[in-house]
Predict the structure of LacI family transcriptional regulator.
Amino acid sequence: MHQQPATARRVTIVDVARQAGVSTTAVSKVLRDAYGTSPHMRSRVRAAVDELGYRPSAAARALRGRTWTLGVMLPDVRNPFFADILDGVGEHLDDTEYQLFMTSGCNDATSEARVTEAMIDRSMDGLILIAPVSPPAHLDRLARTVPTVVIGRHSHSPRFDTVNDDDFTGAGLMVAHLAGLGHHRIAHIEHHETDRIRLAEMPNALRADGYRHAMHQHGLGEHIDIASTTYTRDGGYHGARILLDRKNPPTAIFAGADVVALGVLDALTEAGLSVPGDVSVAGYDNITLAGFRAISLTSVDQAGHRIGSTAARLLLERITDHTRPAAQVKLSPTAVVRGTTGPPR
Amino acid sequence: MHQQPATARRVTIVDVARQAGVSTTAVSKVLRDAYGTSPHMRSRVRAAVDELGYRPSAAARALRGRTWTLGVMLPDVRNPFFADILDGVGEHLDDTEYQLFMTSGCNDATSEARVTEAMIDRSMDGLILIAPVSPPAHLDRLARTVPTVVIGRHSHSPRFDTVNDDDFTGAGLMVAHLAGLGHHRIAHIEHHETDRIRLAEMPNALRADGYRHAMHQHGLGEHIDIASTTYTRDGGYHGARILLDRKNPPTAIFAGADVVALGVLDALTEAGLSVPGDVSVAGYDNITLAGFRAISLTSVDQAGHRIGSTAARLLLERITDHTRPAAQVKLSPTAVVRGTTGPPR
């Protein structure tokens, strides 16, 4: 039976030593499997540990080595795509001793700095950063301090591994699908970005680039039309309102993310427009809700689950050997056609 | 300028001492604001800390006191209702030094034990547990070790605070709404539960109880019909299939959670049934997606944001004074009527 003290006081190594009738040094030696402990001492200490329900503090263990803790930083907890990534990460860690802690970086560099410092302060053994917006120098500095894998950022650092969907190609696949249906006025809703580096590295910026490039390729350069909002449902709603107010509104709206497409659908329903009769709508990410029959959203599948499991595998490798060369993994997206896209009127 | 060593090695107190030209004991004293440090020594040490970018390890600090870390355990990361709770928790902590780490307990007692032990091992200053399924003795033991607030479990322990929606009343509100529309065959989809204690304490069980009680109150006791699945979209889909296969299928389905209702809507669409023309559908939680026009789900609002901020407030109070009597906060739900419910044919 566990005999816990009645107060909120934590059981300490001193309690264990007293219970076992040995010194705290002896307890400490047994707990860290050090030399110089007799089988008799070991069994007494272990019995005392069990009786008192003592758990060696991770803080104490951290001073000697691994904490078996990994940190995941998400941009926000509302985009259901990140749950797919987390499922993949979790599955790869299931057979390990690692414990996963998540925290939100709030899509803001200041907040990300605070969050990543907190994770290092907690002696986490490794970090997975999802779509971080921090400057490359900050990411590099982080990766020098703790093994790091970055998801959703097309960086090339010798210090950390990256796992990405080929966002440029994925956007092109969706333009090809819509152009193939006969659409010309295909508009895009992007996540607004002004920072030069982020314009080169963030998935949202590469999707907008891929859209522009593909429009030119299909001879639709003159119809390029982008509403610049945010990758949220509100961003989709406002983006659609902007596009519907054009003199020549689009016949198809390609949203840069599925959450954005949900907002677009909301705006179209409100405006009394039918989908895909009046306007075709497509998203990106293929969140599980996209397959929901009442929505049935055409989207680009970037295999979030596989992104997550790949990142977890790379991180464990890097923790074991932090000198191995950085890996850049790029996964190929596929278009998933459902009910929200059809030929134009 | 930050001069970081070129390797992945972490800057230690030894590096700071060398850079400052003082002993490690002196550095340690300065860092913990101890007596016996001269202004000159303090400025040299602080300059060295800045130059090297040294961050005192939370592990080392944890041995002396607070870690300024709070842990939140969620049952799963897919139910969007938990994002509302997290928003509320986060908002209350915005002006504090606390850092929030989340982890999933996977709706399973063994997994919860592992996760909560990990959070204690990491010396977290306090825990918020959302809808834990662990036995009361485990929750009590946890709360003796670390300040704890439990959300979504109708327990009465002197050791931890609880924040709950009045689930029994909430279910009654929805039955009253549906009965008021003229429905008699109102079915319920519950999260299957067999454990005696969980049947008395879990929100899902209290919602099922509230449903049964209200059906009797409205003289509809003979029409009580429950499909017992899980609080997931799959659970809603299968629950609806079970109910539609009845000899006398229901004219209204009250799902115990909005994610469940999404699965019900999916099954009805697949079966070619109109909502609310053929079948009315209601959920519980009022997730933001419920207000989405393409779904427009009637639901019970349990104010997830307020639940979260209340829990955070109670936890900070308890960290400051862990001897204060346990608080049981129960919030009142409201029915939110939207497009998925209407009179029966």
About this structure: The first strand of chain A starts at residue 69 and ends at 74. Chain A has 13 helices and twelve strands. Chain A has three domains: 13-56, 69-165+304-331, 167-302.
